[in-house]
Amino acid sequence: MCNNVSSGYVCYTFLTYNMKKDKHFSFRTTEDDWNYIVQLAESDDRTPSYVLNKMIKTFRNRGCFHINQIN
């Protein structure tokens, strides 16, 4: 959804995104990888879920749409 707001001579555009997280995703990982995620989360007072979501968004925002781009 895009909302436009005018203020004098300047028009501002505010983007709002549907941030509802309604999908559950689980997977197996090594203890080392899990400890890494937990360490990242704890260093910023976040949850492991937050860190994984942030990683996914970062890959998408950087244009990684094929597994070869991650290797």
Q: What can be said about this structure in brief?
A:
By secondary structure, the chain is α+β, with helices and mostly antiparallel strands.
Describe it for me?
It contains two helices and two strands; from the N terminus they run ββαα. By secondary structure, it is an alpha+beta fold. Helix 1 (31-43) packs across helix 2. A hairpin with a 2-residue loop joins strand 1 (2-7) and strand 2. The protein has a domain at 25-71: Arc Repressor Mutant (Orthogonal Bundle). It is 38% helix and 17% strand. It has a two-stranded antiparallel ribbon.
Core attributes:
2 strands; globular; disordered N terminus
Major beta sheet, specifics?
Answer: 2 strands, antiparallel
CATH class of the domain at 25-71: Mainly Alpha
| Helix-strand string | EEHH
Quickly count the helices.
2
Q: Per CATH, what is the topology of the domain at 25-71?
A: Arc Repressor Mutant
Rg = 18 Å
Could you give the topology of this structure?
Elements: E1 2-7, E2 10-15, H1 31-43, H2 48-61
